[in-house]
Amino acid sequence: MSKDAALTLAMPGRPVQAAGMNQAQAHPAPQPAAPEKEAPQALELRHLRYFVALADAGNFTRAAEKIFIAQPTLSQQIRRLEEIVGTPLLQRRREGLRLTPAGRVLLDGSRNVLALVDQEVSRTRQVAGLGRPSLRVVMPPGLPESLAAPATSGLQEAAAAADVDLAWLETALDAEFSLISTRRADAGLGWLTAGPQSVPAALEVMTAGEFVPQVWVPVAHAVAGRGTISLEELAALTVIHGPRRAQPGTYDAWLTAMQAIDPRFEFTDPPFRHSLAMTLAMAAAGDTPAAVLTGPAIAARTQAWPARRSRLAGTYGMIRVILQHHPLTATAALVWRDDLPRPLQQILFDTADSLTEPAHPDSADLISLTTA
């Protein structure tokens, strides 16, 4: 064996080196390590909860207070959420935050996901014997007592008999009942303004009668003497009604009916929503004749009659008249998601089935100063 071919035996722990190989050949330069790939950021439920809270609050300060975290932490988590989805979700403007189109899509999805998770956690706890089933019911403000009172009583009794907890939400419902379809609530009592066919297919609907608004005009107006007013005559007046956020479904439907008479017609918002009495006082004190139109208040079948003038002391010179032919109506309905557990659906079905239209009012009811 030649010297060049001779091998030098390595000592323990040392490499074997072939003769004739230089040091560079024996010990090649180390190659740079491949850069480590960053693990993709995972979307967490807390990101969605923070995003929904921010969208509902409208600014970072109120949202942080609502969910009990520091504002810088909330800002950081929202930025991380935008990095995860790969697009801006919010537009930060001087007047406040505004959702981007992508943000609106994610908001709807977030509400659905969170509501489904909360519902399934609740069901899991119930199976484990850790809690009772619950039913979240929207009861909008401004419902006539003749409708709201029996509905509330019926739900309370049926829920107690079925050992179910009720959670009440007092907020407005739109014509599509989106609070329910997006799973922020399980059921709600509201108004159908375009018939049951306008409600999303995933919701169950049971109607509870048609209701019409009250109409008040100055006692000196020509229609006051006969006790009735046509839609055309009403459209010629300044009509105080709203604001839209209080009852968006009926507001939009009735505005459409008025604009069919006069395309330029617009409602005038009341300066206060404290009571009907305050609205009547403001209408009576105006420079031009004004009418007051309430939300749905009386069963459509009720045949009302003008109040006696001697009983107008608390109405500030305004008198209630009948709107001819009931052109403005709203159907009361109890609406719920069709995927609710059967026991919860039975509670709602039984309650809706028990609701009836209110009885004929007496003359004192005609000048009742309930909230508009």
Verbal overview:
It is globular and about 70 Å long. The protein has two domains: 42-128, Arc Repressor Mutant, subunit A (Orthogonal Bundle), CATH 1.10.10.10; 132-366, D-Maltodextrin-Binding Protein, domain 2 (3-Layer(aba) Sandwich), CATH 3.40.190. The strands form three sheets. Strands 5, 6, 7, 8, 9, 10, 11, 12 and 13 form a nine-stranded mixed β-sheet that branches. The termini are far apart. Helix 2 (45-57) crosses helix 5 (101-127). 36% of the residues lie in helices and 20% in strands. Mean pLDDT is 80; it is low at 1-26, 303-313 and 357-372. A hairpin with an 8-residue loop joins strand 1 (7-8) and strand 2. It is α/β, with parallel strands linked by helices and 372 residues long. The protein has helices at residues 23-26, 45-57, 60-67, 71-85, 101-127, 145-161, 178-181, 222-226, 231-235, 248-261, 276-284, 342-354; strands at residues 7-8, 17-18, 90-93, 96-99, 134-138, 165-169, 187-192, 203-218, 228-229, 238-240, 290-299, 318-323, 330-337.
Question: Briefly, what is this?
Answer:
The protein folds into 2 domains: 42-128, Winged helix-like DNA-binding domain superfamily/Winged helix DNA-binding domain (Arc Repressor Mutant, subunit A, Orthogonal Bundle); 132-366, D-Maltodextrin-Binding Protein, domain 2 (3-Layer(aba) Sandwich). The chain contains 12 helices and 13 strands.
